[in-house]
Amino acid sequence: MKEQKILKVENIKLINSVIADLEAICNFEKDYVVIKLHGFFQTDDRIAIQEITRQLFLEEETANRTFGSFSENLNFLLDSLKVADRKTTKSIIFIIDEFDQFCQHKNQTLLYNLFDVCQSAQAPMAVIGLTCRMDAISLFEKRVRSRFSHRQIYLLVKPDFQKYSETFVSLLRLQQSRELKAIYVRSWNKSVEDLAQDPLVQGSLKKVFNLNPKLRLLQNILLVALSRLGESHPFLSSKDIVTAIESQTTDCKTLQLQGLSVLELQLLLCMKYLDKIYFGEPCNYEMAFYEYTKQMKNSSMQKFDRQIAMKAMEHLETLEFIRPVEGISSSKVQKEFVVYHILITSEQLTAAIAKYPNLPTEVKQLADTCL
Amino acid sequence: MDFEWIGDPISVNEAARQLTSKTRTFYKTCKYLGTEYNIGDHVLIANSEADDPESFRHCYVASLVYMYEMKSNKKDPFRAQVQWYSRVEQLSKNLRKDGVHPPLDDAWELVHEGQRYKGDVSIETIFDKCSVLICEENEVPRGVGKQKKLCTFFCRFALGPKNSRDLVSVKESLTKQLADMTAKTLVDSFSAINQSDKEPTTPRRISTRSRKMSENDNTDSSVHPELINTPRSSTRNRQPSRQLDNGKNESCIPSASINTPRSSRRNRQPLLLVDSEDDESSVHTGPINTPRSSKRIKQPPRCLDETLPSPLKNSTFSISSNKTKELCIVIQRCKVTPNKEISAVELDQASKVKARKKLDLETPVTPTKAVEQKTPKKPKRAGSVTPGSTQKKRLRLTPAISSRSGNLTEPTSPLGEIRRRLHVAAVPQTLPCREDEFDHIYNYVEGKLADGIGGCMYISGVPGTGKTATVSEVIRVLKESQTEGDLPDFKLIEVNGMKLTAPQQIYVQIWNQLTGSKVTADKAAKLLHAKFSTNGPRHRPTVLIVDELDLLWTRQQDVLYNIFEWPNRPKAQLTVLAIANTMDLPERLLMNRVSSRMGLTRLTFQPYKVKQLQTIISSRLENLVYFEPEAVEFIARKVSAASGDARRALDISRRAAELAEKGSHNISSPTKSPSKRGAHPSKSTVTMQHVQAAIEEMFSSPKLLAIQACSLHEQLFLNALVQEFNRTGVEESVFDQVIRQHYTLCDLEGMSRPNVSELLSVCASLCSSRLILSEHGRNDIRQKVRLNIGIDDVSYALKCL
């Protein structure tokens, strides 16, 4: 008969293991009901209440029940909980994932009523809310907060690289089993431990760890690395790990920039230049094209005329390298004069230009002057 | 006017006649709209509150006791005294919920109301005759239903004594009524009050009730004072030899019959007794019955009609003084019977169910239809689906939760017991520290109920100050005093604004709790308007509790307007207790016309003070000494300094008890108050340390920890935000500016620069835990970012690393 809140990271896993433990202790069928809600599935109280009713009365014939109006359902649920008695009825455990989403609902009706039932001698129940938001309690309305038990558990762990690399090893390690030859398992485990000691791998792992120490990212990286294995390549090498990490952490904008035409790249460089000299003020097509013609005056490169440059500009917009400034409706303004923000940093441009194959040297020089 | 009296005025009895000359003339028969009504007839009375007042489903059923004309009442001179019958669905919930009875959901079944309500109605509300069969408990007569324009109802049960939850067999109850009345006088006369403890209550109740009613009744129904007066005057005037024109007299009201035995007490002359009883005998019934004797009391009367509408109607009393003793003995036996009757009802349950099934099989004419009912636990739902009104057959789930198999283990350790008591849900026996507010509300509601007028009270206070608890305590005490007969019967309606999906749903809720039927919001509003503006024939005072009033606010404020308008109507008899958090809600939110109707009766619940919180916790702990008094005081001080919320105080103390219990299990913390632990090695005490730990756990800010749990680049990003703020002085920064700062910091730390995608994911991760706030990610590097925590917090947390 209390409500709790669990924050952060692997909360649902923890809850599931707790529920599994609980299941081992008492007989599931007999003593309690678990009701699971999710803030992104039950997007309003009406759906949530229908879902609760459905999960609560799963044993009864729900097939014939026609779900009535919202208020009918709410009253029905509240009546049910009121009828229940502490001594005789099953306990109910509510597990609400992303429960901060429920705070957005109108009047927080569901939360209020759940907490109110917890706080009054009605059905025995516990409400466990999971969220990743630190300030979730401040989202409660005053009267809801008063009914909340203020029991909070924070799953906050200080990141520790030693443990991280241990996890890396334990994720990859194989268990002895019948399908696998013992000798392979042994040599695989040995290779994994060697890999963990490899300075190249350690450096890359440290980089990832500094950015995002979460387990999920590590698993994704390892999955990519493992998928490279084959008969000819039975053991993981440090190169596999490094490329896998790169594949998970490369900058997508830089990759995209490498697929642009020279004209588009030139236009972007011009816009970036304007952005720099005007201290982040947005610019329009006319300004960018004027800058372009200025640069091309003494150039031996092919010059494109207005229409083609316009087309290139539109292409940049659809790729979201540039973005029209909000608040100015683009329909009223001629498209030459729509003002754009450039959404690329100079680092991204430099990196892209360095990798661009067969780029004319003039553009490279231009980039050096512009950026 | 389609109304005429038939026959000459009749005199009721000696006493009544004195007053009769002034105000009213009694008649035996009348003709209204072509139908003749005699005293003793069963009639249908229009229910002005129902949607269709004259439908057979919604009208009231009663039997005529008196009919009289009141000259002084110009508007509505023709009136009648009636004995009511209840429809099954009109019975209050707790009566029907009683699992003892077989389901009473028959459309044509009535319940005799006994002495609970006496009605004084205008004859014009009567619209038809009907007939009522009085049956044994397990008997269901044939031929009930509507046949040839005549409705036939049947009646098996009567309501037990006031506010008891039991139904008793109608025959026995009628007999008992008679016995009770006689008992009072006999008990008085023999001054044998100490015969049993319970005994005097019943007769006294009758008298208090009638007294109350006489106080409450207005001039147009001032029957009761006369009736109460009757005994005295009769004692004064009556001569033993006096013979009244008893042939024509009628008085069928049970309360009137009180005088009979009392007069016998005063004069104690058998002859007189016979006289007065002759007064009461009615003419129109055929055979004059055998004198009521002990034998008659023992056996329920065989002829059903004889016992109705009033037990005294057809009986002629001839109790001589030498029989009184015998009667007294019998009455004692009658006193015991209610229990037996209950058990009899229990026993008969099965047979009744059988009988009902039989009825369904045998009488296809009757429109009875077994309502879909899954468990007998759900009487309300079953009642709402009345077979007559709605033909739709809808399967409904029972509002119940499946029961557990194993029994709960009661807490064994003292700390477990403490935890149980400290739970907010545990209902305390008393509400300490709210005595003044309690008195205030109690006196207000009691006064309104006693005066039969309406009013409304606004109760405000911050959450957790005991508003709802106090009000429900008031209601509980009111119900108790109502059971004792000090207050008129009232109907309680509780609505919580939070439990409504829309403000308009309050009408549906109120109407549902009033009548048990479900209608749409608009319809319910109309019906409620009608109900509170007319004084229906069976109008009871209503107490409406509206919790979380502020949620009923709408732009038009029509809901609030109506809630406060109804009590101001002269006939509504509605008392509204409105509860909300804010003290100045009427001034701040409400229009003038609404706050004016709300009136100025306000009550504010101040947040609890230190002493009060201390009292609350220790009153819950009672005699359990495992909680250090200093610890209690510490909690009280902490909470009162912050909010004064009693819930919080209880939560903290419960958590502290939990911690103490945990600590005692694994004695890993010998440092915590070693002296105590040394004293009680087996039992642990809740000490200051536990309280401190509980408070820290509940109220410590997790932000410091959260920052320290961030990855290196997340921390750098936070730092970069601080730097950017220091540079610009504006809280909001643009993402690409923060990137510059971040890169600078990276260079300072000698770390490789992460790319923009990586930094965006860092930003998103910080944003999901709300350490920073950011715009929509669509804006990419132009999105605006700001810290959601203090800059000092960030610097401090990063310095600690």
Automatic annotation (TrEMBL), chain A:
Residues 65-151 form the ATPase AAA-type core domain. Residues 167-353 form the Origin recognition complex subunit 4 C-terminal domain. Pfam families: AAA, ORC4_C. Keywords: DNA replication, DNA-binding, Nucleus. Transmembrane segments: none annotated. Gene3D superfamilies: P-loop containing nucleotide triphosphate hydrolases. Its main location: nucleus. InterPro entries: ATPase_AAA_core (IPR003959), ORC4 (IPR016527), ORC4_C (IPR032705), P-loop_NTPase (IPR027417). Component of the origin recognition complex (ORC) that binds origins of replication. Belongs to the ORC4 family. This is Origin recognition complex subunit 4. The lineage of its organism: Eukaryota, Metazoa, Ecdysozoa, Arthropoda, Crustacea.
